[in-house]
Amino acid sequence: MFAHPTSPVVPGLQTDQFQNYSSYHARPGSHRWKNAKKGLQFTVMTVGCPGLGRTTFINTLCEKQVLPPPVYGNPDQAHEVQPMNFAPYNVDMEEDGIKIALTVIDTPGFGNGIDNEEHFKQIVQYIESRYEETLAEETRIKRNPKFKDNRVHALLYFITPTGHGLRELDIKLMKRVGNRVNVIPIVAKADSLTVDELAAFKKRVMEDIDNFRIPIYNFPYDPEEDDDEVVEESRELRNLLPFAVVGCDEEVNEADGSIVRVRTYPWGRVEVDNTEHCDFARLRFMLLNSHLSDLKEITHDILYENYRTEKLSDEQTSDGVTAEA
């Protein structure tokens, strides 16, 4: 089973820095925001097949019940394919003294059909529609000072823990959205695999990502310009991909008075925030602390700029063809 006490530790990884990821004394990340008083708008999209624990993960990430428990309908209608939709949830948070206006966009219904091509299109169109809103605002003569940046800064893709690598569905989705958003692959329900199985599965997933040239957020760094701390941190996080996560709403009071979020099994328990049990604490610290600013900057400076260039180039080409006609 999932023998956590004997879990291997990644060489050079100082796990204690992630244990108190929400502490005011957490080690400052290199990618820091500049205006603590104003706060930050940050948008995350979660995508994955039904039953992978997205609802529990989001509630665990926000440390409160943001998404309601799933409602199971009429069993007589269970065979009917439900359409995918986009469900945004807004959460005001504070991490390390910084106010974060977090928006989580869930995608219930994704991947529940035989042909999910339409789902791929809808997700890409949704992300691009947010870019279109920003582009339209930038081209206004008089801009709205209260304009809200609704662009998706990170897409968390939940991978089914099959143990056999990526499925065709996973490959197609990540390739379709990889040039529009920062894709962060996640192994859902990681406690369903043993330590050795999980390590082997992570390796297979990363091999598939390399072989199929799937663009993901791989913690970019520049050894010549970034300091040693930044380089080491990025390398450590890159070695953890895809992040193995476990979500849980259950809290247990320990003998020392601390409160621990755990999943209890007949053979033992999994502590969600224990870095020897899963990567949830590292992922949360990265998303809402150390790399939040970097994800926003890449979205604006690279992904959005690429979309903007393509959009304006297409418009100029269309205008030229119309003029010639």
Polypeptide structure, described:
- The chain is α/β, with parallel strands linked by helices.
- Helix content is 37%, strand content 16%.
- It has helices spanning 16-19, 54-62, 117-138, 168-177, 195-211, 228-240, 280-290, 292-324; strands at 40-47, 87-95, 98-106, 154-159, 183-187, 243-244, 251-253, 259-265, 268-271.
- The strands form two sheets. Strands 2-3-1-4-5-6 form a six-stranded mixed beta sheet, sandwiched between helices. Strands 7-8-9 form a three-stranded antiparallel beta sheet, with no helix packed on it.
- The chain is globular and about 70 Å long.
- Residues 1-33 have low confidence and may be disordered.
- InterPro entries: G_SEPTIN_dom, P-loop_NTPase, Septin.
- GO terms for molecular function: GTP binding.
Brief sketch in words of this structure:
This protein is of the alpha/beta class and 325 residues long. Helices cover 37% and strands 16% of the residues.
Strand order of the largest sheet: 2-3-1-4-5-6
- Strand percentage lies at 15-25%
- What is the global morphology? globular
CATH class: Alpha Beta
Might you state the CATH topology name? Rossmann fold
Span between termini? 69 Å
Query: The biggest beta sheet, please?
Result: 6 strands, mixed
Query: Percent range for helical residues?
Result: 25-40%
Helical stretch tally: 8
Number of domains: 1
Q: What is the ordering of alpha helices and beta strands?
A: HEHEEHEHEHHEEEEHH
Radius of gyration: 21 Å
Class of secondary structure makeup: alpha/beta
Let me know the number of strands: 9
CATH architectural type: 3-Layer(aba) Sandwich
Pfam families: Septin
Family: Belongs to the TRAFAC class TrmE-Era-EngA-EngB-Septin-like GTPase superfamily. Septin GTPase family.
GO molecular function, one term: GTP binding
Protein name: Cell division control protein 11
